[in-house]
Amino acid sequence: MAGNYGFTVVLEPQEEGGYTVLVPALPEVVTEGDTEDEALANAEDAIRLALAYRQDHGMAIPSDMHPEIRHVTVAA
């Protein structure tokens, strides 16, 4: 796998501690870690694996997505 790829990640703190990481451009990548650094390192590993899988199976490697975050308030 030649070249460098950059992806936007979403780092979500969890109430019980730790972080969950999502990669909008690669929906198969969901990982976590006890610390922000660990979560991001796990995300890097998961992204590498996802890219290798995609290349091995002739799947496209998508461009990065730049999600916009909005806040919505609803009455329930």
Summarize the structure.
With 76 residues, the chain is an alpha+beta fold. It has one domain: Double Stranded RNA Binding Domain (2-Layer Sandwich), CATH 3.30.160. The chain has one helix at 36-56; strands at residues 10-13, 19-22, 30-33.
Main beta sheet, described? 3 strands, antiparallel
Structural class: alpha+beta
Low-confidence stretches: none
Order of helices and strands: EEEH
CATH class placement:
Alpha Beta
- Binned strand content: 15-25%
The Cα radius of gyration reads 14 Å
Distance separating the two termini = 48 Å
Taken together, the total number of domains comes to 1
The shape, in one word, is globular
Helix content: 25-40%
- Please give the oligomerization state of what you see: single chain
Averaged pLDDT, please?
94
CATH topology category name = Double Stranded RNA Binding Domain
* Arrangement of strands in the largest sheet: 1-2-3
Number of strands: 3
- Give the helix tally: 1
CATH architecture descriptor text: 2-Layer Sandwich
What does this structure look like?
The chain is α+β, with helices and mostly antiparallel strands and 76 residues long. It has one domain (1-76): Double Stranded RNA Binding Domain (2-Layer Sandwich). 28% of the residues lie in helices and 16% in strands. A 3-stranded antiparallel beta sheet has the order 1-2-3, with helices on one face. Strand 1 and strand 2 form a beta hairpin. The longest helix has 21 residues, at 36-56. The mean pLDDT is 94.
SSE inventory with pairings:
Elements: E1 10-13, E2 19-22, E3 30-33, H1 36-56
Antiparallel strand pairs: 1-2, 2-3
